[in-house]
Amino acid sequence: MAGVRSANGWTAGRRRRLAGRRRLLAGLLLLAGSLAAGGAAAAEPHYRCDRLDAQAALSGNEDDILSQGRDGWFFRAPNTDLDEFFVLDGESLAYMARLGAALGDRGTRLVLMPVPTRALVAYDQMDAAVPLQGRYARRDALAEYRAFVKSLRDAGLPVVDLDPETIRARIGAAFYLKRDLHWTPQGAKFAAGLAAADIDRLLGPAAAEGRARFATRQVRTEPMTGRLQSMINQYCDDPVPAQELAVFTTVREGGDGGPSDSAEQALFGDAGDGGPQVVLAGTSFSATPAFNFPGFLSEALGRSVLDYSISAGGLSTSMLSYLETSDFDRDPPAVLLWEFLAYHAFPDDAVAFRQMIGAANGTCTGTDRLVAESLVEIRGAGDVIAVPPAAPPVVGEAGYLALEIPDRTVRRFTVEVEYADRDADIVTIDQAPPYASSSRFFLEFSGDFAAPVKAVRVRGLPEDRALPISAAICRVRQGAS
Asked: Is pLDDT at 355 greater than 60 in this prediction?
């Protein structure tokens, strides 16, 4: 039946449809207004966690001390989230500079990305009434972080600008998870954009070579149930829900794959692009698939990124594991991005740096290979790798040891370096998991000894069987510094 027409010519049905559209439009405008005002998510309650105080008093591990902030945030103290000092002494800075120079001699630009602490970024989520948080000197910590970054740049090392104030101005506390030590996928994407811009500037015109298109899409949501979340629920009387995480994946358009999700996959991966190769060595921030940092970086760069990152490895594990691979030795990348946490203690990693610098120099050949030995009967007691009297002297950081042990179960042993003045340097090589299994080991000789190297012994190997070992005493190639 025809609708009843009003004096203005509209039917009653048309009038009802128009009114419905107006209500929908009003609702959409109201929703848009609330999102613009930041009212999209309600604040979380303050959870009853009285046992956190007792835990802080009894814990023998300072990294496990937790305190509750605002809006469902929890912070670790004092040497992680609330760290105010970022130590980079002169020796550590010299190691960093020498590593960058050794890589540069192989055609690789080292780019550093020290990730600032959660308190520096999410300072407005801290509760000054909580003693651990109230004592935090944010202004001093920010000055320390900036001085740390400046010292690296002054040493000639490119550093991605993850300044906490830049992060706060652009995405705020959303850079980090509330109840986990890691960044959010949003934070990972933001950091990837900054890193890609710096890498493109370093590559110059070569950055345009072999570009590909990548697409990122959300695949699921999942609760972030890490160790920190478990500790929170252990010490809180109220149930504290896990934060929901939007999980993304990135793939190359027109292809069947994207960046590797893990170091293990990357060991057998192929960048698949023309143009400069980019390799990532980082922490769990880069290694955890849910954060998709390698994917976001590939999308921003327009090229596949080979990811050799390792979770729970501290400062040096992923970098050393990658540099010891034959992949690096055969085909050094154009750019090596090193992601690490700013609170990692550099002075504790002197031996790791000596191994990284040796590995960066790589397998030696020709006149740089001063001594070469194939030892097939070396056992736990160790055999001597002697420097012939006629060989050019090897003094300090101008030389290094290269070992190849095909038995990949050998992860720990001792190297004894004997000098011409009878002094000795005894170094323990310990590459137990989470280091990637390797058959190649390197060690830079120490600059603390003025006399030339006379001999090297390898001790602490399995005594129940003979091990074939290839050993070489190498001189740093001319042109490297």
From this structure: yes
pTM for the model = 0.86
**Positive or negative torsion for Cα 206, 210, 211, 217:** negative
Inside any domain, residue 11: no
Average pLDDT for 83-98 = 91
Residues 334 and 406 both lie in one domain: no
User: Based on the domain organization, do 283 and 305 belong to the same domain?
Assistant: yes
Q: How many domains does the chain have?
A: 2
For 438-459, how does the pLDDT look when each residue is reduced to its tens digit (9 = 90+)?
899 999 999 999 999 998 888 8
Segment 12-23 shows an average pLDDT of: 42
Q: Is the dihedral of CA 227, 295, 435, 182 positive or negative?
A: negative
Please give the pLDDT value at position 64: 65
Given a contact cutoff of 8 angstroms between Cβ atoms, the answer to whether 186 and 175 are in contact is yes
How far apart CA 44 and CA 241 sit, in angstroms, is 10
Question: Residue 263's domain spans which residues?
Answer: 56-349
Whether 315 and 438 map to the same domain: the answer is no
pLDDT tens digits along 206-250: 999 999 999 999 999 999 998 899 989 988 999 999 999 999 999
Buried-state track 63-97, b at ≥16 Cβ within 10 A, e below 16: eebbbbbbbbbbbbbbbbbbbbebebeeebbebbb
The tokens 């005002």 sit on which residue? 37
Q: Lowest-confidence range among 90-94, 317-321, 386-390, 446-450? A: 386-390
8 A C-beta contact, residue 282 and residue 192:
no
Are 218 and 298 within one domain?
Answer: yes
CB 243 within 8 A of CB 208: no
For residues 175 and 23, the model is more confident at 175
The answer to whether residue 12 sits within a structural domain is no
* Among 315, 349, 383, residue at a domain's last position: 349
Indicate whether 173 and 109 sit together in one domain.
yes
Domain assignment present for 91:
yes
Cα separation, 108 vs 394, in Å, equals 25
Would residue 40 count as lying in a domain? no
